[in-house]
Amino acid sequence: MWQPRQKQQQILERGWYWKESVPYGVNARWIFYKLYDYDHLFDADKKQAYHNLFLPLFSKARKQFYGNWKPNSLVDDSREEFLNGFGYFNEEEWLEIGISKQECILDKWQYSKYYVEIWFEAFAMKGQFEYFAPNISLVPFKGDASIEYKWRVAKRLEQMAERYPGKPIKILYFGDLDQKGLEIPKNALRDIKNWCSVSFDFIRGGLNLGDETKFNLGTSIDKISSYQWESLSHEQAGELITSVING
DNA sequence: TTGCCGCCGGCTGTATCATG
DNA sequence: CATGATACAGCCGGCGGCAA
Questions:
Q1: CA A45, C1' C17: Å apart?
Q2: A35 preceded by a cis bond (ω within 30 of 0)
Q3: If pLDDT is split at 50, 70 and 90, which confidence band does A224 have?
Q4: Which CATH number fits domain A105-246: 3.30.1120, 1.20.1420, 3.90.550, 3.40.1360?
């Protein structure tokens, strides 16, 4: 039975506290920023602390089932399996579950002023956007978008323009405040605008210049003077997302 | 003395940009 | 024009030293 040392125990305990502090699943990176920036539990350089101290420790805790930690205590939204071959066991189950319990979902966009999509860079924070922006389509960016993905986005926006004639399209973008974080949407927009016959508003909701001081953010793991979406607290992220949606 | 810890590097796959 | 670095989110393994 693995027994972490005093310091490690303290870090794991605080990690569990942060994990439990929000109503959605979080990734390792999010917890690390809380432990480093808020709790100051690491003396080492940020990048070193993340790769050499934090990740191995929390990997071990989950694999060894230390305390309440389990392999699924942290979420990975970036990998997905595709299950096939399932269905109803028989006609009776189909009538019971397939038909009678089916909800009739009506389109909400037809009544709204705009068609809105949220594009965001910090892919693993999907749960957070689902929580603060229910009923809005979420379009994750994992680093630079692939060519096919950009084409898919462009064609979808055309379809939306056709489905909701005259309704303006608004894209709200959220991502890191660093060089790459600014390039990712710029690169994607270049192709998407080329391939999309309809126009749309693109609004970078954050992180924008000034947000780092407004929210008193700690710096990125990888680069000083860079700021990551995961540095935002639950409340700050909620405030930022909802204010952009309502604005 | 054993095993935990810190440190370092590499791997997955697609894309863009800086450098030489 | 070719190569390397970086972005995304982690997981895995080896080595050497120190602590329980």
A1: 20
A2: no
A3: low
A4: 3.40.1360
3-state DSSP call for residue A67? coil
A118 Cβ within 7 A of any nucleic strand B atom = no
CB A58 within 8 A of CB A15: yes
Q: Please name the residue whose C-alpha is nearest to the C1' of nucleotide B15.
A: A144
Annotated domain spans of chain A: 6-63, 105-246
Top-confidence range, A34-43, A66-75, A147-156, A162-171: A162-171
> Which of the nucleotides lies closest to A190 (Cα–C1')?
B16
Higher pLDDT, residue A43 or A235: A235
Task: Tell me which amino acid residue A184 is.
Answer: I
Alpha carbon distance A135, A116 (integer Å): 10
The answer to whether A197 and A158 are in contact (CB under 8 A) is: yes
Q: What is the pLDDT of residues A34-91, one digit of tens each?
A: 888 888 888 777 888 888 888 888 888 888 888 888 888 888 877 777 777 888 999 9
Judge if the beta carbon of A63 is closer than 7 A to nucleic acid strand B: no
Question: From residue A217, how far is each of A47, A66, A131, A214, A220 by CA, in Å?
Answer: 16, 31, 22, 8, 9
Q: Quick one: A43 exposed, middle or buried, by C-beta within 10 A (0-12, 13-18, 19+)?
A: exposed
DSSP A92-116: HHIIIIIITT---PPPSGGGSSSEE
Residue nearest to nucleotide B4 (CA to C1'): A4
In the numeric block, which tokens belong to residue A164?
């909701």
